[in-house]
Each structure stands twice: as structure tokens, then as C-alpha cells.
Specification:
mainly alpha
């Protein structure tokens, strides 16, 4: 899920911006949208898009939460194996 958030986050930000008159309905149209989708496959671009979109805090929060969901069960499993 974490990889999906970082790789597809830019695509979904473009879709949400389309409703407000940006994104795919912007001056570059479909070509600009395809370029943005291609660039959003680079994770740092998702960080940049989230900064401009105003959702950087949400991106960092979900990243931290998903990382903890991944790490905590592994540490609990090691703890239970010792007992």
C-alpha cells in the first residue's frame, strides 16, 4: 500500500485537480496530464505535488502509519517467539 501511495499519489492529485479546473483540464490538456503521470512514477515528484496540492501532511501521516502497520506486527512476532 505504501508503494502505491507514493507511485500513484500524483495521478490521484491530478484527478482531484481536474475538478477545480487544473490537472487534465489545464492549459496543457491531455499531453500535460500524461507528462505529469509519467513524472509521478518518480516518488520524489509525489512529494513535490503533495507540497503544491496542500496535502503534504496527509502524505507524510499515511506514510508513517503504513510503515508502523508493517513494522509493529513483525516486532510483536519476534517478542511472541521468545516467550
Amino acid at each position: 500500500m505504501l508503494v502505491g501511495v507514493w507511485l500513484l499519489g500524483g495521478v490521484f492529485m491530478m484527478i482531484s485537480a481536474t475538478i477545480a479546473g487544473g490537472g487534465f483540464s489545464g492549459p496543457d490538456g491531455f499531453k500535460g496530464g500524461l507528462i505529469a503521470i509519467a513524472m509521478s512514477l518518480i516518488p520524489i515528484y509525489t512529494f513535490i505535488m503533495a507540497t503544491y496540492d496542500g496535502s503534504l501532511f496527509a502524505l507524510l501521516l499515511i506514510s508513517m502509519a503504513l510503515f508502523l502497520v508493517w513494522v509493529l506486527p513483525m516486532s510483536m512476532g519476534q517478542r511472541n517467539a521468545k516467550a
